[in-house]
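Purpose: get a first structural picture of the assembly so the mutagenesis plan has something to point at.
Setup: two entries, given in the order below. No constraints added.
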Amino acid sequence: MSAPGWVSLDELRRQPALGLLALDGQHWLLPQADIRSLEPLLDIDPTRRAPGSIGALAFAGAWWPVYGLSGELELLQELPGTRRVCLLLDNGADRFGLVCDRVETLAPPPRLFPVPPCMADAASPLRALALLAAGVGAVTDTECLAARLAALVEHADDD
Amino acid sequence: MTTEQTGQTKARDSVAWLLTLGGDMQAAVGERELLQLVEAPTLLAVPACPAYCRQVLYWNDRLLPALDLAAWLRADVDTSPWHLAGIVACQTEPGAAPLLAALRLAAIPGRLRVSDTQACALPATPAGWSELAVACFRHAGRAMPVLDLPCLLAGSLLRVVR
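Result (structure tokens, whole complex):
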């Protein structure tokens, strides 16, 4: 189910650390190396809106579009009161912010399991599963999230 | 004289497990496809997955997809706790690593012997059996679909638009 160019399970397993993003009680994990910064929500400028975004945040001399996603990775136009922090993600090709309830670093990372093929197709943001004390973590990466956001924004435009 | 010379084929018998998926929905799997039953399984939620398969079961050092095929057939979501899971396994091709899953069951499976002469058409309702089953046989006056586990566990339902 891997799409060309997306991070493979083996690559994810070689990551020295994973970032854990809590969204509505769901746990999403991605390579810690993709996390550029954590910023306060107050710094988001809601007047600078790219399509689908909730605003933008100035960082390192650029405006980063910021998005709100639910625990199911659906686009949110209004943020739940549980969102506390803005995570800036940068993998060299994609740069954006994501508001989260909580962010942690898991180092060493938890053991990763392959996603059963009946649970996700190539368009899914799921790249692996992780067994955590709090349940199962869904592992993704910044490129997957960027593709998901692009698809959601395009779908929202169609509506 | 062989069956080829007579043009006749001897009916074959095989053993199957009859699974109650939920309500009055029953289906069969091959004798070797059902590995184990787990009572009151602890399922772990996974986000961004299809409605019929939103949880996994940690079993024998693996995370198995937990499929609720009755919910898929009804096109709804049943969030009530599972009382029983059947661990099933299959191969998509010879030599391939087995695919495993947990199926939601509503009753202890029954073991029965099935003959080719019992073959019949799939039930007309609920719609969707043709996406789940590879064959069907008549038992106790009812049509019993035979689950196509290799296709199901390889993700065939992800491509079904309902």
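Chain B has four helices and eleven strands.
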